[in-house]
Amino acid sequence: MSFAALGLAPSLAHAAQQQGLIAPTAVQSAALPAVLQGQDLLACAPTGSGKTAAYVLPLLQQWMLADAPAGPRPTHTLVLVPTRELASQVAELLYHLGQSLGRRPKVAVLVGGVSINPQLLALRGGVDWVIATPGRLLDVVEHSRLQLDRIHSLVLDEADRLMDLGFAEELDRVLALLPATGQRQSLLLSATFPPTVQAVIPQLLRADHAKVQVEDTHQQDATIVQRAVLLDGSARTALLRELVQAAGAPRTLVFVASRYSAEHVAFKLKAHGITARAFHGELSQGARQAALQDFKTGSLQVLVTTDLAARGIHIAELPQVVNYDLPRSPTDYTHRIGRTGRAGSSGLAISLVSPATQAHWQLIAKRNALELPLETLDAYPLTEQPPARAPHEDGDNGGIKGKRMSKKDKLRAAAAAAAGGQSQPDPH
User: Fold this and answer.
1) Are 146 and 196 members of one domain?
2) Model confidence over 4-58: pLDDT tens digits?
3) Which neighbouring-strand residues pair with 350?
4) Number of C-alpha atoms within 13 angstroms, CB side, residue 281?
5) Which long-range contacts (CB under 8 A, 24 or more apart) does 134-138 make?
6) Is residue 389 in some structural domain?
7) What is the rounded CA–CA span in Å between residue 154 and residue 77?
8) Which of 30, 99, 122, 330 has the fewest CB atoms within 10 Å, i.e. is most exposed?
9) 194/286 same-domain check
């Protein structure tokens, strides 16, 4: 099926083709007709499945068909994202699509890490699309005349992250500035929607919203080969160097647990002649953009990153992902390995498991229905012993965020109970 057959205007279908969007993906085929008809949307699809174009294309067509205002532009679409990098990618797609259209949208990107003044200047005369992280959007609203009470469409890209505890309060404040749920079109998209997020969806979407579910096939997808290697924790850096050098892969994305680990592992790799750089949230926006661009162009062999790069960031033909540190949750594993094997290209995802993290890995594998044998390598004999573990009250969950509430979850539940006499999280 073509984009035109889904209801996309010929000019927009042509613009999409010029950006390499030749045929719609599964999520695009299901989402476009619903969004074009003005329905709210809940879309759950794997990373790399084309979710960004699934909402940009139909909402751009809605904007094109709307009458051009005589005065200042009212904001038509607000796209909320959790990271600066995802905001840049959405804006880039809009820019390139707009170049092929007779009427180009005016887009404002509002993200932290850079001066607010140029962003305030960009809002003069109004803007058609606002792509923002929640915190910077609230800052801009306080310092400008940006009005959000007339927006036509709201998009929560990586919605599960936006509705997580770290963004919950800011998201509530943003939603209070918008038209009521029934007076706007709302789209929620992500690769995963845990139960805590599903519980608040009725407060964000109309009851007749469209639902799109594209199965995550990473576990069975032949384009992504997955491996798990059991070795001493102290031997991980040596094996990582070997994987980078021996595999012949021009680029490797390495996931670690913290900013310190990103800097430390990148330093160790550079000491052995590998071009590597750390990538994490405490870098300036300029440093983050430079590192990501160098990695995308291939001038950087290894990007050592926290989960900042696990969502939304598209890196074409990335051959290899390594979990140097295991992800905290099973869903984060899905997001991480989804950076490779995109758009039908092949990829390799390798997880380094130590005796101390073996129980954690077993639960990640169980919850993702993985049937991966734990490999051992002759060159890296095991000498470390797993730590003694005291069972949790609800069973040994290996440290994964799951049934047992974390400290932050307990605080959130307590705040909700105090506010409304409920033990469930506040709807937002």
Assistant:
1) yes
2) 999 999 999 988 888 878 888 899 999 999 999 999 999 998 777 789 999 999 9
3) 227, 322
4) 12
5) 134/80, 134/162, 134/167, 134/170, 134/171, 134/173, 134/174, 135/170, 136/110, 136/111, 136/112, 137/80, 137/110, 137/174, 138/170, 138/173, 138/174
6) no
7) 6
8) 99
9) no
The total number of residues shown for the chain amounts to 428
Q: Are residues 101 and 238 in the same domain?
A: no
Instruction: Map tokens 């010029």 to a residue.
Output: 18
Same domain, 204 and 276: no
Give whole-number Cα distances, 361 to 117, 131, 399, 401, in Å: 46, 36, 10, 13
Backbone phi, then psi, for 315, in 5-degree steps?
A: -125, 110
Instruction: Single out the residue in 328, 354, 375 at which a domain terminates.
Output: 375
| pTM for this model (two decimals) | 0.65
| 233 and 284 part of one domain | yes
CATH code at position 172? 3.40.50.300
Counting the structural domains of the chain, the total is: 2
Residues 127 and 96 in one domain: yes
Residues with Cβ < 8 Å from 138, sequence gap 6 or more?
170, 173, 174
* 39 inside domain: yes
Residues 268-317 pLDDT 10s: 999 999 999 999 888 887 888 888 889 888 889 999 998 877 766 777 77
Contact 416, 422 (CB under 8 A): yes
Give pLDDT tens digits for 171-216: 889 999 999 988 999 999 988 887 877 888 888 999 999 999 987 5
Among 213, 241, 259, where does a domain finish?
A: 213
Range of the domain at 105: 4-213
Per-residue tokens: 388: 């003694």
Strand partners, 129: 77, 107
91 located within any domain: yes
Structure tokens at 75: 């904001």
Percent of the chain clearing pLDDT 70 (strictly above): 85
Q: 410 φ, ψ to 5°?
A: -65, -40
Give CA–CA dist 77/274, Å, rounded: 43
In this structure, the answer to whether residues 265 and 148 fall within a common structural domain is no
Residue 366, number of CB atoms within 10 A of its CB: 12
260 and 150 in one domain? Answer: no
